[in-house]
Amino acid sequence: MPTSRTTTKTASTTRKPARKSNTAEQMSNSKFHELFMEELKDIYWAEKNLVKALPKMQKAATSEDLKDAIGHHLEETKIHVSRLEDIFEMMGKKAQAKKCEAMEGLIMEAQRGVEDTEEDSMVRDAGIIISAQKVEHYEISAYGSLRTLANVMGHADAAELLEQTLEEEKHADSLLTEIAESTINEEAAAE
What we know:
By secondary structure, this protein is an all-alpha fold. The chain has a single domain, classed as Up-down Bundle (Ferritin), CATH 1.20.1260. The chain has helices at residues 11-14, 22-27, 31-60, 64-90, 101-115, 122-153, 156-190.
């Protein structure tokens, strides 16, 4: 029997990007716009540093499925960097990175996880997946928030690019779950 607490899909998960309006012009000098730009700089730093970190994770992985997934996401991450540069340009700004302490910590944690596990083991692969999913969840949160801010300010083109990246991050997370659950976790448990 349904209760009043039945969960429904919120409009924010299915909302189309807002059309351009005077709102974008009005918001360009606001504190809200400053927040958007600071968060954009943060995720730009994160993505650029992931382009450097993902090859190391790929090399450390044992499973071909995991290596392929990381390699594919590396190529997507390069596209994410380019999209962010496009968004900076849309905002009339030069692309600028601001150190993302959270991503730096997640990358360092992933590196320690590789160092602390045996080479060519499924335990290492399970750890790499955990680390990669932590990164994906951070990115999903960042891109979802940025897309919402862009929509509120009337930056429809930016919101559309952010939505594309958000969907790719969600797909990467789902693929990592699939790889973990299909073989790696069982094999790691048996080691």
